[in-house]
Amino acid sequence: PSNELIKEGQILKLAARNTSAQERYLFLFNNMLLYCVPRFSPRFSLVGSKFTVRTRVGIDGMKIVETHNEEYPHTFQVSGKERTLELQASSEQDKEEWIKALQDTIDAFHQRHETFRNAIAKDNDMQSEVSTAELGKRAPRWIRDNEVTMCMKCKESFNALTRRRHHCRACGHVVCWKCSDYKAQLEYDGGKLNKVCKDCYQIISGFTDSEEKKRKGILEIESAEVSGNSVVCSFLQYMEKSKPWQKAWCVIPKQDPLVLYMYGAPQDVRAQATIPLLGYVVDDLPKSADLPHSFKLTQSKSVHSFAADSEELKQKWLKIIFLAVTGETPDGPNKHPATLD
């Protein structure tokens, strides 16, 4: 059969955020592991209990690591492409039975699909950390908060007020807010943007340190500086994908006429975001009667919607944007940028 039940049973899941252990239930099939929570009762004594599937972890690419935790005995780690789980069995025997069942299922899966090469030899020397080649492709094991007292990148000590703990979604390390102020698309999470540390960001995105400094430097340009020497600037309503509409001070500066800068207000000292306009597709047909002066910029999976307060202001923006998306810059001097308070 395509789905053959190998083993099922109660298990405890160790949380990275705190010291609690949460009751869960596992169903091991020949091609996947279902990580479930009870739908009604937190206990599993009743026959025919109903469960909600929290995570499905495929057997393909799964690795099992026996872990050692002084506070929590009988622990082991299930690392899959979709997620990594740190689990606690009820006894040493229960732990060994789970590890054996999981490993036997992994071995049988690879033998059936003829992709099992040197996994047996490597499993004996398994590393719990995600390798550089696997960054973004495999869900990492999160380092537990109580296992570190300082940022694993800059080495600054954590505290409850100014330097709190954050987890890099690529490597699982515990880092401070400053070292986790990056986002990258992670393959294991369907290509969604996730918070990552600087090192993982540079590896996954391919940015060098100098390129990242340049990118950060662009965002640090003050709004007043670019607004006073811009091609066009004004307040616009802005929406990214399905997020709520919000008011933004938008600027296309003369010295960088192919980039749209967005600020929270005209006097902000740092841009909230920038959009390199080259290559975007412009849709100038309004989609809502509530926002008749709207337009949309689309490129691959990036969708940015804008709405002006008047048709006149919308057309001023579109005149500049239509040029920028093709790589052209406005002709003629523009001593007084188009603005509308």
From TrEMBL:
Question: How is this protein named in the record?
Answer: FYVE, RhoGEF and PH domain containing 4
List the source organism.
Answer: Mustela putorius furo
SMART domains from the entry?
FYVE, PH
Instruction: Tell me where in this chain the PH domain is found.
Output: 4-107, 229-326
Q: Give the keywords, sorted.
A: Cytoplasm, Cytoskeleton, Guanine-nucleotide releasing factor, Metal-binding, Phosphoprotein, Repeat, Zinc, Zinc-finger
Q: Which Gene3D superfamilies does the UniProt record give?
A: Pleckstrin-homology domain (PH domain)/Phosphotyrosine-binding domain (PTB), Zinc/RING finger domain, C3HC4 (zinc finger)
One Gene Ontology cellular component annotation held by this UniProt entry: cytoplasm
The primary site where this protein sits is cytoplasm
GO biological process assignments: cytoskeleton organization; filopodium assembly
**GO MF:** guanyl-nucleotide exchange factor activity; zinc ion binding
Q: Which compartment or compartments is the protein found in?
A: Cytoplasm, Cytoskeleton
In this chain the FYVE-type domain maps to 145-205
Which Pfam families would you find in this protein's record? FYVE (PF01363), PH (PF00169)
